[in-house]
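Open question from group meeting: does this chain pack into something compact, or does most of it stay loose? Before anyone orders reagents, we agreed to write out a predicted structure and look at it together. Recording both the input and the output here so the notebook holds the full record.
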Amino acid sequence: MKSLIGDKSFYKRLIAISLPIIVQQLITSSVQLVDNVMVGSLGELAIGSVSVVNQLYFVVILVTFGVLGGAGVFTAQYFGSKDFDKLKQTYRFKVIAALVIAVLAFVVLSFFGESLISIFTDNPVTIAGGMDYLRIVKWSMLPWAMSVSISFTFREIGITKPLLRISLITIVVNTLLNYLLIFGSFGFPQLGIKGAAIATLISRCVESGLFIILVYKKGQVFNSKIKEIFKINRFVLKAIIIMAIPLMLNEILWSTGQTMFMEAYSTRGDNALAAANITGAISQLVFVIFGGMSTGIAVMVGNTLGENKLKLAQENSKKLIFASIVFSAFMGLILFGLSFFILNIYDVLEETKQIAAFNIRVNALIIPVVAFNVAMYFTLRSGGDTRSTFIMDSGYMWVIQVPAAYVLSRVTDLPITMLFLIIQLLEIPKMAFAFSRYQKGHWIKNLAVANEDNANALVG
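Structure tokens returned:
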């Protein structure tokens, strides 16, 4: 048991690294909840319209996270080994990759947006609302791509407090504009769903501008001149690509798997779709611990591996996994309590509230399991064991969870609550595989060792 509990300095460092990210994401989630409530005042169909578009956006976000995650594994380890030249090259890769993905997503959504929305619903009002939202919000992808490239890099080198301040400013701008433009307050036009999209676009531009300023002020260790943006060593590029491909494929499959779950829920009607969106918005208030967890692991395991302190990295991982489970259980209790009254802020049908309340309680009880799996995922990833992360994450989802959701939604008459419960309970068997891969120790390696042979052994 002693090996699972750190000393005072361990938790002090963990809090210093993770707490700003948790607070940042908590504030972001709270504002997203407010946005959700504002849009919800326009009715269930409005929530459905926005949630469908956000689901498509979610796929783009996770694909970007996968590609940037491949570079981020090296960012953390190169920072630990103080190889700042290669650290800068990982940042350049992130900027290029994120912008390319954003442009491709913009083109796809511009030409096929309506067809993609139609996958989730055949209600013409929901589709029309979704298109009104998409036509505007798709422009936010480019500034967001720049922001996430910078934000990820700061996290991976352990600088997190400035990210919190930027989030606060962005959130205030977004919330204020939502209030003014959705409802037409203080003489502004009443734009409804379009107003929510405009608020998102403007706040993303503000966020991107602030991040660029932050790079020039505090990002000297990785900042690069524009003329050097394509200057990436062949070895570094090869290593990142080898790492990024399975992570990108994993995020593509995982995000599309989540989309399949949403599609399965939509077979139970607009109320079920709205309830699923509300469940996600409220659950995210406690799921913010996953952002802090991933940052803590990247720094306290990834940086330590880069320093070639392999035994210490292994010891830190055990303590981080245990801390994640304990803290998530506490957060689950808070979420369970919230489920009894927080839904009163929504102006939706009572049936929708009942469905959402049940689903939120399921999430509250299952969160320690999810926390264990997430901690395992980022631990394995910190040492480059992308084969294991691929199998335990998207592989498991598409072999077990997605077929279960598809069959149950088509073959049975199970209510949406039971459908949601079964899919979430299927997270439990995943724990055994994740733990077995962790025990094998393929992830305990220093990827920052600069030799050509390492490029061919990265996926272990």
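Observations to bring back to the group:
The chain has one domain: 2-456.
The radius of gyration is 22 Å.
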